[in-house]
Amino acid sequence: MAKTAQVAKGLDGAAAGHGAEPRGKRTDDGLATYLIAIAEGLWEEMERDERVYLLGEDIGVYGGAFKVTEGFVDHFGTQRVMDTPIAEETIVGVAVGSAMEGLRPVAEFQYADFMSSGFDEITTVLARYHYRTGVRLPVVLRAPSGGGVRASNFHSTNPEPWFAHAPGLKVVCPSSPTDAKGLIKSAVRDDNPVVYLEHKWLYRRFKEPVPEDPDFLVPIGKADVKREGTDLTIVTYGAMVYRALEAADNLAAKGASIEVVDLRSIVPMDEETVLESIAKTSRALVLYESHRFLGVGAEVAAMIAEKAFEHLDAPVERLAPPNTPVPFSPPLEDAYLPQVSDIEAAVERISAW
Amino acid sequence: MSTEVEPGTAQTPGAARPLPDERLQEILHLLKLARHFDERMEALYRQGRLPGAFYSGRGQEGTHVGVAFALEPKDSLFPTHRDLTAQLTKGLDLNRVMAQYWGRIDGYLRGRDGNSHIGDWDGNRTFAVISHLPIAYPVACGAATAYQRAGDGRVAMAICGDGSTSNGRWHESLNWSAVHQLPVVWVVNNNQYAYSTPNPLEFHVPTIAERAVAYGMSGVRVDGGDVLEVYEAALAAVQRAREGGGPTLIESVSLRWRGHAGHDPASYMPAELLEQYMAEKDPVKNFEEWMLAEGVVTKEDIEAIAERIAADFEAGYEFAQASPFPEAGDVTKGLWAEDGYWDAEPGRGGGTGQ
Hints:
The complex is a heterodimer of chains A (353) and B (354). With 353 residues, chain A is an alpha/beta fold. Chain A contains twelve helices and 15 strands. In chain A, the strands form three sheets. Chain A has a seven-stranded mixed beta sheet with strand order 4-3-5-6-8-7-13, sandwiched between helices. A five-stranded mixed beta sheet of chain A has the order 10-12-11-14-15, sandwiched between helices. In chain A, strands 1-9-2 form a three-stranded antiparallel beta sheet. Chain B has a domain at 56-92 and 121-302: Rossmann fold. In chain B, strands 1-2-3-7-6 form a five-stranded parallel beta sheet, with helices on both faces. A two-stranded antiparallel sheet of chain B has the order 4-5. In chain B, helix 1 (21-46) packs antiparallel against helix 11 (283-294) and helix 2 runs parallel beside helix 9 (227-242). Chains A and B meet through helix 3, helix 4 and helix 5 of A and helix 6 and helix 7 of B.
């Protein structure tokens, strides 16, 4: 993480996907963006296993709304990079049916918001089928999630709690380019359905050295300590990891030692890494971008309270957006999303106990 | 708008027989098995001896047997809760079906689902029924996509009811299958009622079949009271799909003789309509009479079939009662592929991982 370079400050507004620029390439010294990392992971898995194929809206000649699959159709052809009608229920259904017959589909949603248009096939068919029947469904659903890019109501959702509450789906939310690549490869190789939520704020914002070994994987269900500390643990994931790290930097100047645990996977959740961190720091802030009420962090906070009570020196605090849709106007969206200053204030409150 | 359908002509006297005698006898056996099973299971439900729910397919056996009889073992079937008969036609074992109804471990789904929400993907290539019809239509598109890519001549067939045609997924799937010319057969069992809602409150076109034209495929409307007419239409559709000719829509018209499920007395259905269908369009009686008239079976043959069915049903009932319940401690098992719960049943489909 220390080597991650912020390359795109001031991109707010340009990264929403409309009129997207080319995906770009690794730099000469091997740095890759999150966007490039996902594309590399998909490409390698398609080269590795001919059963893997992609389907989604505008992913072929156009290369996808965010250009993740730019150039794929030229190399793999239209059968393995399939442009579909605008029919999300059927996109998921086709993924399921083809997986039942031995293919390994990766379906792209243009935005995670549009997963609601395929919700029944995801939660009723895809999630439950293996538990009911034992038939394996190696399906990956990719979708750009999250706010902070002025994309407004219908292009900024964090739907991870919807799918975390549909038993049978794995749910991952990578934060770094390296994790993005390692997790998409693990998702494609997994025999269970995986909802892979990309964060659009991260697509082009950072570059870092990303492994080029075609068998580099990040395991699903394993959290990562992105910064070590001794005074307080921030448990988070996705784009909020960067706000937590920035807050930790600022607080370090004031003498506070903050640990940042990146969950990476929501389902299954790595409770062990979280609990080990709490045992060390005795204080916890749970920071997340899904809604505060019954959001991912609500489960994390409850888990800490149940399993690490004897280690706690202060109540567990949650910091997350309010229970409203994601608003458009910049002051409103900024008030909606947890900011670095909010994180610092929360850390100080918890530390004062 | 009309639910009138031209009477089937496949079973008129002296009509050319589309199948050899032994295959016709199989059809008669399946029709009579379906009727016996339906009547006996409903009785057990009403006596409080069958837990859960029971969905009767009575009066629609001609559709259920007719369409599934046109499939080969390698083809897949995406059925509904009302057409268990189609799955029996595809080859499901009666003992295991009945074990499923009583929630036993020998049921196809090990007690994870009940009644006709059943399927046997690895054995007989039938999708495990999901209630949200036509939820399996998009999945059938996916299976057909795999067959098309493999070029293996396989076909997917999906069934839904008249009410399902109001749902967006029905339209999405027909459109998608035509765009990609998928090897799939769409069957609508138009039994005229979606729970209590009649056809005129579900769609505003004279027939469901004519909608096919708007999607760029052939549509055909058949008399569900004539199992051979249904079979011939289904066979033509299956052959078209197998040869790369794309999808077909089949609307098979019948009447749902019973309520939506065992609890529903269907008092909303006009008595004279039901009487008419039971008198004139009973697919089991009509076929049996035709078989007798054509000399394909004798009365003695029919009695023997009935005895065999009654014995098989009783054996299935005993098998189900003797089968153990699933272990309560296994309630969380089988959620993930890697937990090994289903590995004891060999050949489960889908991915093979790394």
